[in-house]
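Sample A.
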Amino acid sequence: MEEKTVGFAMCGSFCTHSRAMEALEQVKARFAHVVPIVSEYTAAADTRFGDAHDLMREMMRICDHRVISTIKEAEPIGPQKLLDLLIIAPCTGNTLGKLANGITDTSVTMAAKAHLRNGRPVLIAPSTNDGLSASAANLGSLLGRKYIYFVPFGQDDPVHKPTSLVADFSLVADAALAALEGRQLQPMLVTP
């Protein structure tokens, strides 16, 4: 087990939360300390995919750590150098846009900003219906940024949702180890 502290942040994209939770289990099996983080919307929204309270309770059980769910709680991540790696899984198109444009108005974007100020890696697992349309520019911008890595991703349904992209959540733990070594897990484009 790696003696590292990893932040595991979840945004909307509620349809991928079950896969993200499986990835969280895999990450926790490999890293000694995992800090769960959720966006404010994820902390509050009950959807057809599950109840917010149940999601947060399960994250806390897996990680044995209280869930960070506000900007105020996420801000110390930077000054206190709390994490070795931050994983954002799933990362919505909305959050991709905010990260690409320096917008810090959620607990997840604050965690990323605070963490990046220390020159430490952020691993993004995209999940967005507009990854090959409106979010493509933001994705491209982040692909070229220092300290930003991606979980390999691809089109999840090219026939019915031709612009949709989703990460292969089974690769999150491997991509995390690669990011800690300062390298992008390859190939980056896969069939999830």
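Sample B.
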Amino acid sequence: MSLLSAQHADRWGNRTAIVDEGERVSYAELDARVGSMAGRLAALGVEPGGSVALVSRNRAESLVSMLAVWRVGGVFAPVSHRLTPATVSRPMDRIDPDLVLFESAQRDLVREFDAHSFEEVEHVSPADFRPAERADGEAALHVHTEDGTRVVELSTRAVEWNCRIATAGWGLGRNDCTIALRPLSRPDCLLGFVLPLLTVGGRVVTRRAFDPDDATTAIEEHDVTCLVAGPTEFRELADAGFDGTSAALEWMAARGRVPPDVREAFSVPLLPVHGREETGVNVLHGTPGSGEVAYPFPNCTVRIDGGDVDTVDEANDGDDGTEMGELLVRSPATATGHLDGEAFGDWVAMEGVFRREANDTGGYLLVGDGDDSSENGKRRPRVHPRAVETVLESHPDVREVGIVETVSETGGTAPKALVVGDVSPGQLREFAEERLAPYEVPRAIEPVPSLPRRPTGELDRAALRERFVTRD
């Protein structure tokens, strides 16, 4: 991986690798810039095994710095520019970098660190160095969670396998192009399409910040074929009139649940993708026509945790025994461990609660965020709100559903459905009874004009409970 750009310069010298705010960088130019930056990093004292943190918006220099750090044998640690001066110390303290790089626009975030701007590094005379030969188990990448509270370490092998899994799972090739709609400091952006495409000779379009109108223009102008984004970006793209009809666009991957009204605004399917820093960002992905059901990427083995498995037939004899619980992942793309914790084992846990679809070979459905489950009375199986919502939202006349807990006649709790749509409660109850276990069918179904949502587009469950539970 440390020599990636040198190999590609020989193979695809004049092909465009990066389009950065109108500037086109070929693979040959990328290799030259990486070599020059690597010499400057060596002059600044970066040695094999040393770590370099970067605080920057999306730009070509971010990718040049990453490849240069790897070329001298260092560990690259992208730190989000969306953190504040008060919170940026969370990942920095754990990473404890030997060198901090930044773009001048982020100077306020790095004032307490001994940091060098891109402009300052340009004036450093490159030193002679020998390109590093990296072992599979050596650390290559430190990435942090969105709030910066956890930092995980990925080895050279894990980084390479994240790229291999993405290229094989999506069928990426040299003619593909992606646009980085999320910060490159996010592993789902960096390892989702960006770095995988640079390993197969594709193109990457970068922008300093996300703007839906600018993104729409860039997607069409640069023949973007694949992109990954979250609920917020997709909602803003839909509001801006983007419908995905670009002739080149083939894959749109959704990280996080996208509301039905946003999904329906696009002509290209929004395929769910599940993964996290610890497991590798590409673990499960949807296929056209599969809805929210997702399937393992190549070389990813998954299973429901046997220590925390709920099955329908535990409480209802004769049902299909669908597994539900925490999803465990075994893959060559998993992280080594947290920087301030123990190393991970062979199996690494995903966030959230997943259900294996009994009638769908190998398919899994995200049904809860891990803290959404509720007990339906003593010794009753858990009701996962997202599982019920997904079933009810499959009704053609239902747009949105929110499940809340209400007190049942027996003193326990029972699910209640708040529904946005044009279907009567009676019709929807019959629909639910045909598709859900008896304990999952909502005790009450109430039509409502809208549901509260967070800025990310996700259902605001706290606001939902506050607004509706007090009525019972």
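B remarks: The longest helix spans residues 27-43. The chain is about 30% helix and 25% strand.
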